[in-house]
Structure formats: C-alpha cells, structure tokens
Amino acid sequence: MKIQYLVPGPMSKGPMGKKEVLRRQALLNQWAFPGTEVTVVDVPEGPASIESAYEELMAVPATLKGIQEAERDGFDAVIIGCFGDPGLEAARELVEIPVIGPGESSLLLAAGLGHHFSVITVLDSLVAPQEQQAFRAGVLAKLASVRVAEIPVLELMNDIDASRRRVEAVGAEAVERDRADVLLLGCMTMSFLGISDEVSNRLGVPVINAGRAALKAAEGLVAQGLTHSKKAFPTPPKLRKKQSQPEEVLA
Amino acid sequence: MKIQYLVPGPMSKGPMGKKEVLRRQALLNQWAFPGTEVTVVDVPEGPASIESAYEELMAVPATLKGIQEAERDGFDAVIIGCFGDPGLEAARELVEIPVIGPGESSLLLAAGLGHHFSVITVLDSLVAPQEQQAFRAGVLAKLASVRVAEIPVLELMNDIDASRRRVEAVGAEAVERDRADVLLLGCMTMSFLGISDEVSNRLGVPVINAGRAALKAAEGLVAQGLTHSKKAFPTPPKLRKKQSQPEEVLA
Amino acid sequence: MKIQYLVPGPMSKGPMGKKEVLRRQALLNQWAFPGTEVTVVDVPEGPASIESAYEELMAVPATLKGIQEAERDGFDAVIIGCFGDPGLEAARELVEIPVIGPGESSLLLAAGLGHHFSVITVLDSLVAPQEQQAFRAGVLAKLASVRVAEIPVLELMNDIDASRRRVEAVGAEAVERDRADVLLLGCMTMSFLGISDEVSNRLGVPVINAGRAALKAAEGLVAQGLTHSKKAFPTPPKLRKKQSQPEEVLA
Amino acid sequence: MKIQYLVPGPMSKGPMGKKEVLRRQALLNQWAFPGTEVTVVDVPEGPASIESAYEELMAVPATLKGIQEAERDGFDAVIIGCFGDPGLEAARELVEIPVIGPGESSLLLAAGLGHHFSVITVLDSLVAPQEQQAFRAGVLAKLASVRVAEIPVLELMNDIDASRRRVEAVGAEAVERDRADVLLLGCMTMSFLGISDEVSNRLGVPVINAGRAALKAAEGLVAQGLTHSKKAFPTPPKLRKKQSQPEEVLA
Amino acid sequence: MKIQYLVPGPMSKGPMGKKEVLRRQALLNQWAFPGTEVTVVDVPEGPASIESAYEELMAVPATLKGIQEAERDGFDAVIIGCFGDPGLEAARELVEIPVIGPGESSLLLAAGLGHHFSVITVLDSLVAPQEQQAFRAGVLAKLASVRVAEIPVLELMNDIDASRRRVEAVGAEAVERDRADVLLLGCMTMSFLGISDEVSNRLGVPVINAGRAALKAAEGLVAQGLTHSKKAFPTPPKLRKKQSQPEEVLA
Amino acid sequence: MKIQYLVPGPMSKGPMGKKEVLRRQALLNQWAFPGTEVTVVDVPEGPASIESAYEELMAVPATLKGIQEAERDGFDAVIIGCFGDPGLEAARELVEIPVIGPGESSLLLAAGLGHHFSVITVLDSLVAPQEQQAFRAGVLAKLASVRVAEIPVLELMNDIDASRRRVEAVGAEAVERDRADVLLLGCMTMSFLGISDEVSNRLGVPVINAGRAALKAAEGLVAQGLTHSKKAFPTPPKLRKKQSQPEEVLA
After folding, report:
1. What are the tens digits of pLDDT across the range C116-130?
2. With a CB-CB cutoff of 8 Å, which residues 179-208 of chain A face chain E?
3. E146, E55: one domain
4. Does one domain contain both D195 and D228?
C-alpha cells in the first residue's frame, strides 16, 4: 500500500530543511509493514511550525489541497504530519481515503494501554487545543493531563539529549502527580527525535511515538478496507449537489 | 462604543449581496444600546456560505486578517458573523479586544434561560460541529439536541415564511421529543430572518436570535471592561518573542 | 428600562446599613447602559449575610415576595443580590419578567472568556453549594475549583486592602494549581469592593465582578425581549389552576 | 431507636388530615425493624403539598425548625417526609443527628439494584428539580428519565386504583423507551398508596417505595453510629462562632 | 432473617484461620438488627487474599457456587465478603435473593453522607479496579480519590495499631488534598480491624466500615422485600431456556 | 511475528467444532500483514459460548492459563477471542506481551472513524456489560447505543443470510434512531460471519469486524514494540514478591 505523510507546513524551506523531510521518510519506511511504501511531502506554504490555534488554522488550506491531491494521485491513505491534526474533519469531508491524524491515533492507542494518559506538549499555548482533541477523539475521560516541555518546536532538535531530559522530567511529573500510566509525545518533531524508548525505560510506562502510531493506524485501516464514516463527515453539501471542484465552493 | 460585525465570507459578492450586508447593519444598530455603533463588513474571499467543516476552515484566514484590522482600526469588539464561530480561538490569540462568537454567546445565553436547549441548524453536515461547539463553550451538559431544518443557507431567504414553518416544525420536535425548553437559531441567516418571535410564540419557549445575542454579549463585555483571558488564549509564541507581524509566522 | 436589584436580607438594618444600599445603587447606575435605571432595595427580614445553605434558604421567602412585588411595580427585570442566587428557580416559576442570579450570570460569562474558571468564595461552607450552582448553570465542566478566602461577609469591608490581598493570594493559587484562566468573585460584597481590576492586573487573568455581570445580563435580556423559559420554570400547578395568589398555596 | 418522620407541610390541616398522618405512622412502624419507634409529625405552616420549586422552598423554614426540635427532643434521626428533600443540606448544617431525604435515599437504593432507573413524579414542574436531585445524590449517571404521572399530589388518593394504573402506564414507558430497569415512586403520597408491589409484579422491575427506603436508610445509619459529614455540611459560621441560636442569624 | 456472609477465598485454611471467620461472624451478629442471624462461611478454594484483578477473577467460580448454595439453603440474602465485590453481577444473574457487594453498598452509603468520598485501599494494584467499581455503582462523580495504605491484606492484622496509624495518615491526605469529606475502608480485613471510629474521631469525617454497611444494606433490602432487577441482571439465556443447572452451561 | 488467537471456551468440543477453529485461523492469516502468523487455539473447558456475565467470568480461569502458556511459548501477542474481553485486565497483570481484547480494540477503532458508534450484540443480557466495556475503554462518550440482534451465539451460523438481515435491521435502527455513524459487530461469531462489508454497503456506514480489528491492533503494537502499561496493570503483589507461580497465589 502507498501512504502519504503530509507535513502541513513548508518544512523543506525552514530550518529543518529537506534533509529532515527525507529523514522522516526513511524512519517511517523503516517502521512500516512489508509492502507499505511511505512518501513524505510538505506543503509549499503555511506556518514554519504549529504552536498555537492560529498557526494550526493557517496550515489548513494548503493541507487540504495536499490531501485532495494525494487521493487523486492514488495514495491509499494520508497522514497529516502534525499532532494537532489540522483540518482532519474537513479533510474527511473532502476525500474517501482514510485521513489519519497522529493526535487522534495516538490518543486512541494510549486509551488501550492503560487507565490514564498524559500528553507532553511543547508549549503552554497548546494545552487547551490538546484537551479539545481528547474530547473530539472521545477519550477525554482517560486524559490525566497535558504537560508542557517549554521547548519551541524548532529548537527541539538543537540538543536532542537536553530535549529528552526535559521530556523525561515533565513525564515523571505526569506519572507521579497526575497518575498517568501512559505518555504521549504530543508533537511530531518530538516523536521523531528517537527518544521514546529511553524515556519509557526510565519512567517505566509506555511512551507513544505519534508518528509510528499514525503509521500503524493508517496501515490497519487500509488493510481492513475501512475508512472514516461519510455519515459522520459528509461531503460538503455544495460539492455534493454540483459535483463541482472544492475550489468552486469559495467565492 | 464601536463594534464590528465581520461576515466571514464575501457576502456582498454572493447572491444576498451588499444589500443584505446593509440590512444586517441596520438591524444590529436598531438592536443596539444607545451609544453603540455597529459596522457590518464582509471579507473579500472565502466560502459563499458555511455548511461544512471544510468551508468553516476555509473562511478562517481572511477572517483573522479582518479581525486584526478591526483592532487596528480602533473597534472595541468584533463579532464573527457565523454561528460556527470560525477562527474564534485563533482570533483571541491574535488580538486584545473582545472577539465574540455568536454560537458561543447564544449557547451561554440559552444555558441561563432553561434546563435543556436545542440548536436548529441548516444541514446535517453541521450537527457534529455544533455539538463540539457546545463542548467548547462548556455547556454540553445542557444540549438536548441539534436538529436539522434541511434548508441550505443561501435558500433560507427565498421564502421566509416557508423557512419559518420548517424551523417551527423542527423546533416542535426538539421541544416534544428531546425535552428542549429553549431553542437557538443555529445559523446567522436564520437569525436575521426575523422569525424568532413568531416561532417563540407558537412553541411557547424562548427562541434565541444569535445575532442579537452576540451583539448584547459584545456590548456587555466592552461595558464591563472585560476581554477574553490571554492565559487561555495566549499570543502565539513566535509572535510573542519577535514582536513580529502575524504574517511572519508563515513561511 | 427599570431594573430592581433586590438584596435578599435586611442590609439596611445590619452593620453595612442603608449607606451601603445606596452606595451599591450608585455603582450599578454608574455601570448601566444609557437609559437603564437601577433601584436597590433590601428585604425587611432574613439573614444578615448568607454564608451557609441554611441562611440561603431562610432568605428565600422574603426574597420571593420582593420579586413578585417588583413585577407588580413594573420593573423590567430583577437581580437577586446574592451570588448564591437564593430562590432563583422558584422566582422564575412565579414571575414573567427576567430574574437574574449573579452567580449564574457570572458563571456563564466566565465560560465565554476562557477554558477553566475558579470561584473565590468567602467561607468553606459555600464550596459545595457553589459547585452545585455550576452544575445548575450547566458549566460544571469548566469549573477548575472553588477556593476560599476565609473572610466572613460582614468583615470584607473592614479593611478593603487586606481583603484584596487575600483574594489575590487565593486567586493566585487557583491560577497556578488549578489552572484557572478566569476568576469570579463569588460574593456580592466582594464584588462591590472595587478590587476586581487590581486583582486582574496583578494575576493576568480576567476577574469577574458578579454585580456588574448580573446587570449586563439583565440589560441584555430586556433589550432582546427575552425571559426565562416557562416550560423550564412552569407556574406552580396550584397557582395555574386557581389563578389564586401565591400565598393561597400555603395552608 | 426513635425516628421522627417530619411532614414538611400542615398535612393534618389539609384534605388528607390527621388521619393520614396516623396512617403513615402506622405503616412506618409496621415496616420498622424491632426496636424502632417512628413518630410522624407535620409542621404547622407551609404548602398543602409540594409540586414546584416555590412550594419546596416555602416548606423549608418550618421544616428546619421541626428538625432542630426533633434533635432537642432526643430523636435518633429525622426523615424529611417529601421526595424533594426540602432543606436537606441546610438541616444537616444545623443538627448532628442523621437527616434523611427520601429522594436521596431511594435514588441511592435504586443505584444498587440495576443499571438505569427512572423516577415517576406527579407533575411536569418537578422533572427538573428531580434531575438536580440525582446530581446532588451523585447518581445522575444512572438516571434514565423522570416521567410524569400528571396527577396532583392531593388527588392521588381519590382513586387509588386509577392512580396505580397511571403509574403503571408511565412506568411501562420508562422501562420500554428509556431502558429503565428500576423504578422509583417520586412522591411520598404515591409511595404511601401501597401500590409498589403490584406495579413491580406487572412491570417485572423493582419499584421503590420512598418512605420505606428512607426508613431503612435512617435505621441503617443509626445502627452504624454514622451521620452526615460535618466537613460536607458545616455548621453555619455565625452559629459556630457565637454558639447562638439559629434564629439569631436572622436579622 | 438469615444472611450469609460468604468469604470468597479459603480464609479458614490461610494465616487468619477459622478463628477469624468466627470472629467476623460474632461481629456481624453483634451489629445486626434483632431477628437477623448472620452466618459466615468461606469457600474451599481460591486466592488467600484479593489484591489484583487476577485474584479477584480467580475467586469467582467458587464464590458463585457458594451463592447458589446459599439460595438453595434458604438464606434471605448473601454478602460477598470482599470489597471488590467479585462476581457480583454474575451472581445476580444466577439467583433471586439479594446479593450484596460491600464495595457497592458502602460507595452508595458514602454518597449520601457528603459531597466527595475517598476509598482507602491496601495496594496500588487495586486503585483502577476500585475506580471502575465507583463507575459501576453509578457514583463516580463523587469519588475524590482512591488512596493506598501500602499494606498487604494478610499483614493488616499483624499490628493493628500500626495499620490504624497508616490508614489515618492516608485518610488525612485524602481529606486535605483531595477534599474528601467521607472515607471508606476499601478492604474487608481493614473494615474488620475495628478502627473506623478512632480514625473518624481523629480526622473529623465519617469513616465507613464496609462490613457493617453491607450488613445494613442486606437487612434493608430483605425488610423491604426488594432484590436486584432481573431486567438488569437477567438469567443467562442458556439457563433460562433449558431450566438446566448452571454447570451444564459449561462444556 | 507470531500471534495467538485464544478462544476462551472449548469451541472444538462444541457444535461449531474444530472445523470452525481452523476456519477462523485461515481467515485471520488471510487478513494478516506479510510476516504475521496467527495460531487459533481454544481452551479445554469453559462455557460453550458467552452470553452473560456469568459465562464471561467462568471463562476466565482457563483463559488466563492459556495466555500465560502463550507467553511461555514465545508468542508475540495474544488475542482473547471473545468480544467481552474476558479476563483482559487480569491477563495484563500476568504477562508482558500485549494482550488484545477485540471489544476494546474495536471500540477504540470505531472512535476514530466517526462521532457516535453503536454496538450490535447478540442478546439483551450483554447490553450492560458492553456499556461497561465502553467505559473501561474510555470511549463511553461516543457510545450511541448497544442494540440487540436477539440471536444466540450458537445459532448465528445456522442461517448466515438470516443473521445478516437481522444485523442489518438492528443496525439501521442504530443509525436512524440513535444517530450512530459507525457500527460494531459485538460478538466474535458475528464478526466471523463475513457479513460486515455487505451490511456496511447497505447502511452506508463503516461496520467493524472485531476479529480483524483485534488482529490489526495486535500487529500494530508488536510492530511498535509497545505493550500495556505495567503501572496500569501491575503484577499481582504476591507474585511480585515471591517470584512464585501464579497458581501459588491460590490456596
């Protein structure tokens, strides 16, 4: 199967660059089941990273365009490469192939591994959006806390060991004070740091890498022949009637 | 005080036209307290009407721009002229003046008038988004139902009497089957039809006009010297640090 | 419009005296929109202040009488001058004009300004009643905590600066430990101390003055031609049938 | 042990009369464990029956007085003889002996007999108050519905067989449509009709007689040496400090 | 009435021995209402004590057998002598007489004594199961916390005073940090230590002895002629059709 | 990877026989990713099928033994072959390899495909247990309903077409009346009937085959190197201390 992992921002133009796009592609293909081919692409415009509701929403138009192209290009599923799942519901209205949000996927995965999970996010500005994500995924009842590492996304890779130590310290608080028994790395750059196993070993609880979780969710859906419910995410009425292009909806 | 009512789509270019923009402005000024001046503007691009998550998100970029301009232009508050409150949280991250979402405002108003309220929306595709809105507003516990009139936004004004009868029939179901004791007109065009009093009289329950509710919420906040919590809606970190323009956040 | 603010206890006979009744009337009129006239009255009997469920309930009979008189006297709305909203539901059963509870009004206002709010109350004995108030208002999901200033109502005005510092300290705990991003002054005497702006500036979150919030809610409802749902708060059956005076219901 | 069952209204002066007071006393003593003596008294003033929030609150002052007297007279526990539990929390603030609300007691009993229970109440005006009661008792999660028999309290005994048939019909709807597997008779006069066994046999689900449930709860608490938590229901602060009589709290 | 208290493990063969079985029987009879006779029996096989979901489930087969025998032997009710209520729902499917779970009984009792209760359990492995118990009982909304004494069941009686001090310390944390106003001893051996009164006196909140609470619940149900709903706990379909012995269900 | 699918009952001795065990093994291997080998085994004793809490619990002892053997035999994960997930939490206490419950897996999968899902179960006696399952999985907030096909497990395969029509009719009710937008086949025999695609096509919503969902969940966990949290499901304390065999826990 062919899966597209779509970065909802111009990563290749930013500080991480094309190299990081390729590194993530290599990792995803390494994690994939035999027969799965993952392509990582970014979008030409949008925020350099997503650390607020504002940036999340500004990432949506280009992302939705990319997802529609992925469907036209014959991909079997698309993963939106941001923990905040920007445009997830809108994308599901527009296409028939499974659209995977790493936030949603890893929240649902976490719910099956323990009783109470905590999300470790980058900055305070994402706490409320991620609580809302847990509500939308349906698992708010198991959310112990969203805790903040206080490292901007674009600085996470500067000193990976320092980032890991910070995530570990914050994770330890979640385990001890909030009674979390599962942790989620609530940011894709954090998930791609390669630190989840070490943090898990030190804290004694599962630590979910959202990128890997999203990939397994995508492969699982495609393998089962399942996709999101069109009753839940109906085609926008104007598109339905006119069989027109999405762009025509816009004046 | 000066309040801007910002239509998050190019209404003046669409079927309702500039005339409708002016009609709404006249009504809002008629509903206003003495000393309040309401200006209605629309944005130059975006969806003709919002009937899906897709259109809601596509309306956001132009809307956020408009809200920032409103602040710069000295308005005391902005109302986002769509029941779905597109971009509400992001807008609150960007500006200091109160940003009012008619959906949120009328949900909170409804919560104070009875025990269980129902929202009457235009199309089935908006049921789930409006349930999520009730969660975000914090009043999901009082939501009896979201019921669907099955009339596209752009057809609501074609035959106002027929629209009213349809709203009434759907409202009656909400009252009888879902035990709603308060009703909300869950669409701005529906709210500006001038039907709420008649529907209220016939069904014997309060019917909330979301436009009027939003105006009173805006006037109330300005009068109290209150605005949204910047702890809840912090300035996006990149903007905070660099004192840069929002546009610079985008690559 | 004419609004009555009814103090549900014999304030003019108590330590605060008639002077305080007039001071509150002056403040409310100062806060009002042009065209609104607020009259503050107290009731001839009842508790000196309300710091328990016991006192709250003992305040009800005289308060209900006063509210019915206010309706007969042509007031457009009545505000029950106690954060605990004593007799709110019963009053709505008895009259048609809007009856505003400052507790309910400010809880709903708070829900629109942030994600999690805390109420600062006077004494421990009011924590549970105020949690139940949040349930009745429908916004329990956003209540971060009810925190206690440990100052009896009748001592709040003895040293206003000391009261402010205490409220500030308790508010800081709510913000830091309970993640509140909005605060409510959960007592009318606290609300009329004139401290909300200073507390807000120091803590960096909105602080809601329940008296001012109630006034804006009352003005908003009257301006919209709305009142509480009689389906939610039906006229007591015996009164309905016999068109008798409320007093006749009592043996 | 000595238990007082306090009717929160002047039943002996009303249509049911002293005879009904004695009939209920006989039944309660018949239901009691060996060694329990139940005394039924009514209060000299208050509503003839309780069918609204208004009447419920008007019943409180005389009821609280009666409960304090019962404690002074050496009763081991008091039952408030109304399903709405008027003044329950306030009474617990005032006395140390257990105060039993039949509504609360039977809701908690119901929660242990099945998964979802329904309350059958007399009139529509009591639906919302009884939903709030389930919240206060902590068992809202198991409340399937409050359904209405549409018989005023004072008419329930006119034709007991007709009342039973009506209760049965409403109970059948609760079982079939709301998936209730336990029913509560949500009114004391309904509970004392002697119909619960027959309704239970016909509908195949337990039917709880609130009077009998309250008695067992009272006997159980006294036998265990337990009473309500004074941390949850603290003595009103003014009474605490001054060791004064409750009446002195009132101006 | 005749009540059986069934220990779901071979207590008489374990370290506590037959002596403890008899001691509990003596206590229960001492706590009983006049006319109640309690027989304590244990089952021949199963876990020595229950400190995990594993042991709880392994206790079930022998316990269910014992409960069916109790019904055949003419007992009026059975109490499952473990706070975890092993097999409660299954037992109710198999028999008509009331089956009492001390966990469920004392959770429901606690809900009527205050606003927020905490359970003090023996080991960390029981926290999640007891949270699920509160959900099943329907009172999760009032659960402040499950706190852990960190004493294995079989060591609780080694030094009763040390156990009491530990329970007290943990209880104090629940009261202060979690705002519990009622405490439950979440283990039968803890309940039979005879420490609840002293802990209650020291902490100033009711402390519920689950054994005594279960006995009162059993006596109350039998006295009211009530048992669990067979609509909620239907006879297993295979047994229903074939009128066969439960054993025949098993291959 | 090697996955064991463990049927928690003696299927090979029952009416479906060894043939059905092999048929399911063939299907699972057909659904598997390349490199996965699935072995289906049943246990030597237990209920012929599981249609009650009683049978579910009676299936546990043999099932737990089987799961421990699977771990010792080197399997990478075990699937408990019953939608009710009998013994799931206990099994996770006993072993380190992932233990998959098809109920939990498919509930979490469903939560990611829509807003509200319904479970179609075989008999009324399983409604309440499956509601509790949704709570334990953390997704109760998205459960629209559990609806009943009224076909005993052992009769489902008698006339597959009739079973499909019945499932379809019940599913249609869930979609229309309960607003479900995703359906789950809440029984493994139903899941292995091969009807999900046809039901999905007819009703226009995704229909989840719990066997296939469980397999993908197992493969996904193994591929990610994840297993359940031992903090959530700790090794039973007695086993931890004594490094003894589980059997020694039992007296």
Report:
1. 999 999 999 899 999
2. 179
3. no
4. no
Mind telling me how many Å the CA of F27 is from chain E's nearest CA? 25
**Residue A44 DSSP class:** S
Query: Which member of F51, F57, F135 has the closest CB to residue E90?
Result: F57
Q: Are D196 and D207 in contact (CB under 8 A)?
A: yes
Identify which of C106, C211, C89, C181 has the alpha carbon closest to the alpha carbon of residue B108.
Answer: C106
Read off the pLDDT of residues B25-79 as tens digits, 9 standing for 90 and up. Answer: 999 999 999 999 999 999 999 999 999 999 999 999 999 999 999 999 999 999 9
Q: What subunits touch chain F, counting only 3 or more CB pairs under 8 A?
A: A, B, E
Q: Are residues A113 and A193 in the same domain?
A: yes
Q: Which of D124, D246, D251 sits opposite C10 (nearest CB)?
A: D251
Strand pairing partners for F148? Answer: F121
Residue of chain D whose alpha carbon sits nearest to that of C247: D47
pLDDT band at E240 (very low <50, low <70, confident <90, very high): confident
**pLDDT at residue E248 tops 60:** no
C-alpha R_g of chain A:
17
Chains that touch A (3 or more CB pairs under 8 A): B, E, F
Nearest chain D Cα distance for residue C247, angstroms:
9
Q: How far is F177 from chain B (nearest CA, A)?
A: 12
How is A87-155 classified by DSSP, letter by letter? Answer: THHHHHHH-SS-EE-HHHHHHHHHHTT-S-EEEEESSGGGHHHHHHHHHHHT-GGGEEEEEE----GGG
B216, B222, B227, B235, best to mutate vs chain C, most C CBs in 10 Å: B216
Which residues sit opposite F184 in a β-bridge? F119, F208
Q: Is C224 in contact with B209 (Cβ distance < 8 A)? A: yes
Burial of D242 (0-12, 13-18, 19+ CB in 10 A): exposed
Confidence (pLDDT) at C251: 47
Counting the structural domains of chain B, the total is: 2
Amino acid D251: pLDDT: 46
F39 touches chain E (CB under 8 A): no
Note whether C163 and C224 are same-domain residues.
no
| Angle, in degrees to the nearest 10, between helices B102-111 and B127-137 | 70
| D10/C251 touch (CB, cutoff 8 Å), yes or no | yes
User: In which domain, by residue range, is D233 found?
Assistant: 2-101+213-249
Please give, rounded to a whole number of angstroms, the shortest distance from the CA of B95 to a CA of chain A. Answer: 11
